[in-house]
Design a protein that fits this description.
Elements lengths: L10 H17 L4 H24 L13 H14 L4 H20 L26 H14 L2 H13 L3 H5 L6 E3 L4 E6 L5 E5 L2 H11 L21 H14 L7 H13 L4 H8 L4 H4 L7 H9 L5
Antiparallel strand pairs: 1-2, 2-3
């Protein structure tokens, strides 16, 4: 069901809309697009309210005084079920209405705010991008064919340690501890939390090669080729995109390589250990890596199909 972009509203409703529009233009430092969106959301709500009352033969027109929390809850349900809008769109509309009613309360047009108790629609967490085996092989082949040892080391560490982009960019030599049969990175992550990330044979091997070529005066493990300071997250993104393009792997970011590590590790280690390696505060975050992809779920339901 599609909404009319400019639904008709009563004179009372138009007056309420005009008063709010004047305030937004005079007092709020908003872009024209944002102002237009706020007013559009309010107009849609006013029109829906007046249609609702008309269908029930109630003789009332829109003013903020006649809106109760129950009316806003009905509207939220209408957006979700009748219009089938996505949670983000529903929440944006609710935020617009919350701003409007907060203003009417502040200016004493109403005595209590009916939008205050209205909750936003919870968003379903979508699983991270799932890099498959063929895509990983193609990416590694691309960086090995045309990349420097520095670039090869970066891609390998992202795939085999699950580091965040910022954590990799700021790595120093002092954070690396290599032995003959083991190794680890001492990572300072979000909120200055320190964790130890173990290094497997692949990561240790490429690091040993790379460290032999890194000048002793380099503070950071992967200095920028232009500034010689820490590699920026933006530059890291360009680096990953460069080799992903060569490998014909679409829409790949450094964080996707962290997710690839998470997915693979979730197949072989308990979640609480994986959370420890990746620096997650909650197992709810780590749970993303055991959720089935669309392909996984399709294959699962095909197993019971009648032929």
């Amino acid at each position: 069901m599609k909404r009319n972009a400019q639904p008709e509203i009563s004179e009372e409703g138009q007056q309420a809309l005009n008063e709010y529009g004047q305030m937004l233009q005079q007092l709020e430092d908003l872009s024209p697009v944002t102002t237009r969106n706020y007013l559009s959301d309010l107009r849609q709500f006013i029109a829906w309210c007046e249609d609702f009352w008309h269908e029930r033969q109630e003789d009332r027109f829109f003013t903020p005084k006649v809106v109760a929390p129950a009316m806003l809850m009905r509207y939220r349900e209408y957006l979700q079920t009748t219009l089938s809008l996505k949670p983000a769109t529903v929440n944006r509309t609710l935020m617009s209405l919350k701003r409007y009613f907060a203003w009417t309360r502040k200016t004493q047009l109403i005595q209590s705010d009916p939008a205050s108790p209205i909750k936003f629609v919870p968003k379903e967490a979508s699983p991270p991008r799932h890099l498959n085996d063929d895509e990983e092989d193609a990416l590694i082949a691309a960086v090995n064919a045309t990349g420097t040892l520095r670039d090869q080391t970066i891609i390998t560490l992202l795939l085999h340690t699950g580091l965040r982009a910022q954590e990799l960019c700021t790595l120093t030599r002092q954070q690396i501890h290599l032995g003959k049969r083991n190794g680890m990175l001492r990572i300072i992550g979000k909120r200055k939390k320190v964790r130890e990330v173990p290094l497997n044979t692949t990561a240790r091997s490429v690091l040993n090669q790379y460290l032999g070529t890194l000048p002793q005066e380099c503070q950071y493990l992967f200095p920028s080729e232009k500034t010689h300071r820490a590699l920026t997250e933006r530059a890291l993104g360009h680096l990953v995109t460069k080799y992903a393009t060569q490998a014909q792997v679409a829409d790949l970011s450094p964080h996707d390589l962290r997710h690839r590590f998470g997915y693979r590790m979730a197949e072989v280690v308990p979640l609480h250990r994986l959370a420890q390696i990746m620096g997650h505060d909650s197992l709810d975050t780590t749970m993303l890596y055991i959720r089935g992809t669309k392909q996984d779920l399709q294959q699962d339901v095909e197993k019971i199909a009648w032929i």
